[in-house]
Amino acid sequence: MRNTTTGWLLIAPTLFILFVTGLLPFLYVLVVGFFDWNTFAQNPEPQFSGVNNFRALVFDAAFLKSLWLTFKFTAFVLVSQLVIGFFLAKMLLRDMPLKGLFRTIHTLPLMIAPIAVGATWRLMTVPGLGPIPHWMQQWFDVKYILSRFPDQAFATVVAMDIWHWTPLVTLTLMAGLSNLPEEPLEQARIDGASEWRIFWDITLPFLKPVVLTTVFIRLMDALRTVDEVWMLTGGGPGAETRFIGLHIWRVVFPKTDYGYGSAMSLITLYLTIVMCWLLYVAMTGMKEKTR
Amino acid sequence: MAQKTGFLPIKTNTFDRIFISVVLFVAISLLWMRFLEPFAPLWVSTLLSVVLGQWIIRKG
């Protein structure tokens, strides 16, 4: 009994911090989501509006478009980062000269703050100043103007995110790959299994927990991307790279529509949780039904 | 929490089934507001969701 009390006392500070910084703000947003609260409105006081914010949201074309763009962005970066990260992890695990140096250089983007990454990429993509528009013109005869062409802006945002976050995927996959048991791999090679067969039937099942964790982290990060994109394109041209985080920021801060912004945040959180849960159920065999 | 197998295609415990019920409640309400509210009021969807949730928690 005494041990239990001591245990609770020891974790009490952590629980308190989690409650104040995690649960309390969530509950606040949950409540505000059901209020009409705009400090610039005729009545700046919060007024209970039931599900009106959510009713408006399901018809809000700008919100639905930003959701669609966010999912498109997430799908592109997640798949690209997993594939590139896997190949880089395999490469960096091989014995080669200057392996340590390559690993260090490869990890450098992770150490840069997202806002600085956005600023750097913006400098690289400014026409007449950055090297990317110059190279695109010289090598491919392509006019590269982020503020004019939506596809270029979207592709650049995706490329920036891949550049910034693939090292994280590589590091986690390297940890997973270096802990693979040798025996099944050797047995499969002796039995004459092809590399693809070994990857699909041995490597991938052993890597599943690592891949799952990595996908979770990157999925949640990609869904709430704001600062890099804000710095690089500002959500433009038009609203073509205005992902959900940026859209919520615009509603909550410049427009001070706290109720509507909270409702958007709640829907985004809901979709994130549902996606993660579906992914978890799909990727873990432990939930399969045994009849 | 004890896991059990009901009509859901996965093994679930009570928390899982409550979670699935809440997720479905939100999804049904949002879809109802988007597509069906001109034909039937929102409380119908709430009623349906509560019945569905009960069923999932008990038999899921």
Q: Can you characterise this structure?
A:
The complex is a heterodimer of chains A (291) and B (60). Chain A has 291 residues and is mainly α. In chain A, 72% of the residues lie in helices and 1% in strands. Chain A is built from twelve helices and two strands. In chain A, helix 8 packs across helix 9 and helix 9 runs antiparallel to helix 12. The model of chain A has no long low-confidence stretch (mean pLDDT 91). Chain B has 60 residues and is mainly alpha-helical. Chain B contains two helices and no strands. The longest helix of chain B has 23 residues. Chain B starts with 13 loop residues before the first helix and ends with a helix. Chain B: InterPro entries: DUF2160_TM (IPR018678). Chain B: Keywords: Membrane, Transmembrane, Transmembrane helix. Chain B: It holds the Pfam family DUF2160.
Sequence-ordered SSE layout with sheet pairings:
The complex is a heterodimer of chains A (291) and B (60).
Chain A: H1 2-32, E1 35-36, E2 47-48, H2 52-57, H3 61-93, H4 99-107, H5 114-125, H6 131-140, H7 150-178, H8 182-190, H9 195-223, H10 227-232, H11 244-252, H12 258-283
Antiparallel strand pairs in A: 1-2
Chain B: H1 14-36, H2 42-59
Helix pairs in contact in B: 1-2
Condensed summary:
With 291 residues, chain A is mainly alpha-helical. In chain A, 72% of the residues lie in helices and 1% in strands.
What attributes does this structure have?
heterodimer, A: 291 residues, mainly alpha, MetI-like fold, two-stranded antiparallel ribbon, 2 strands, B: 60 residues, 2 helices, MetI-like_sf (chain A), cell membrane (chain A), transport (chain A)
